[in-house]
Amino acid sequence: MTPARPGGCLSELKLDELMAGQLDAAAAQEASAHVAGCSRCSARLSEMEAARASFAASAPPLRLDRGAPAGRSVAEARQRRRWLAPAAASALAAAAAVLLFFRFNAAPGGADVEIPKERIKGGERLGFYVKRGEQVLPGGAGERLLPGDALQFTTTSAEARYLAILSVDGASQVSVYYPSGPLAARIEPGREAPLPQSTVLDGTLGTERIYGVFCAEAIAVEPLRAALAANPDALSVPPGCDVETLTAEKVAGSP
């Protein structure tokens, strides 16, 4: 539910959009004028800016490996460079949680704001946020991404499930984004819950298809990866599993 606010005050969503520069010129001017004359909105905006600054200061810089270290294959290096260090993943999860509060609980009139995504079947949803530099923004189907972007995946499920996330990049190479272990990892019931690991995108450009596999049991991940590598255009899953697919376009330069 949207928290009650004094008449005339800006919603958390509007303040978030003002801070992120997502309002058009007229709306931004109107919102800025209101904040300048409203002590409550001014204080709330300052709190939000401080929270964002704290996150930006705590997250370590994201770097991509440029080649395979000695004694390690290119495929192994490719897989390893996709995971954020735990501190960065934790900071990104915290920032995603803040944005989830703003965007999903503070819409005017109490309405939920949904991130668009492609539905295959089943009652689970896979979403993600994008960290680019100091910005953390919501992502969705058809998102334009850059090499080096960090993705924080979120899940929505009415019951406990076991999850694996795989991707096929623009070169038809298959990667396992989640989990880091051999079996699909348990997720608890919840709405837009951030996963404990985050993923840094490598330099391969083109369309990337991301598959979220939600299963009743902790299935092995390697057979899923092998099946997708054999047929990158479709993912076949065992009984008891549902699949949701997201597509994104990885581009060079500004998206």
Question: What does this 3D model show about the protein?
Answer:
- It is a single chain.
- The protein has 255 residues and is of the alpha+beta class.
- Helix content is 31%, strand content 26%.
- It has 6 helices and 11 strands.
- Strands 3, 5, 6, 7, 10 and 11 form a 6-stranded mixed sheet that branches. Strands 1, 2, 4, 8 and 9 form a 5-stranded antiparallel sheet that branches.
- Helix 1 packs across helix 3 (39-58) and helix 2 packs across helix 3 (39-58).
Secondary structure category: alpha+beta
Number of strands: 11
Provide the helix percentage.
25-40%
Q: What is the string of SSEs from the N terminus onward?
A: HHHHHEEEEEEEEEEHE
Indicate the multimeric state.
Answer: single chain
Question: Given the C-alpha coordinates, what overall shape results?
Answer: elongated
Q: How widely separated are the two ends?
A: 34 Å
Which regions contain 5 or more consecutive residues with pLDDT less than 50? 58-87, 98-122
**Radius of gyration of CA atoms, rounded to a whole number:** 20 Å
Mean pLDDT: 74
- The helix tally amounts to 6
- Please indicate the percent range of residues in DSSP E strands (runs of 2 or more): 25-35%
Largest sheet: 6 strands, mixed
Task: Give a short summary of the structure.
This protein is an alpha+beta fold and 255 residues long. 31% of the residues lie in helices and 26% in strands.
